[in-house]
């Protein structure tokens, strides 16, 4: 199998795995009562941007090959690196969901008996779910040999992150106060030890 086709196949498998990981948590989350919702227009725009950049546009490229004018030569080393990064993203994504358990929500919400989670990947960063999206976007650059489809994941992630992370941290400060502030002092946002 040629490098471009292999990269595309690995990207498709990764997206399917992403959904398989998320689905049971989505089902469980529906059963837990929401105490406070912080959904806003910018939240919806951020989620839509991430979905478009990390799934819709690259899927369109994989299915149609368009825009072919933005294709570039694929290489085996890029596909191998992209595969490692995507596997890392899925591991962080799964661990984040597992640690959050009943506290998980796709939008900014506080659930009944919500707890502050500081274990697992949350011991290193405050937002490991965003870390996983950053890694997915980076993997996409290496797996898809197309400048537009490849970079769209990083752009979609950036829009989501910039529109949401400050609001999410304010929500957590409102609900957990000094406990969350102390947690913020011990951890970085999405990249351990750096940012």
From TrEMBL:
One of its GO terms (biological process) is methylation. The chain crosses the membrane at residues 6-23, 44-63, 75-93, 141-163. It comes from the Bacteria. It is found in: Membrane. GO terms for cellular component: membrane. The keyword Methyltransferase applies. InterPro entries: ICMT_MeTrfase, Isoprenylcys_mtase. Keywords: Membrane, Methyltransferase, Transferase, Transmembrane, Transmembrane helix. One of its GO terms (molecular function) is protein C-terminal S-isoprenylcysteine carboxyl O-methyltransferase activity. It is a multi-pass membrane protein. It holds the Pfam family ICMT. NCBIfam families: isopcys_mtase. This is Methyltransferase. It comes from Mesorhizobium kowhaii.
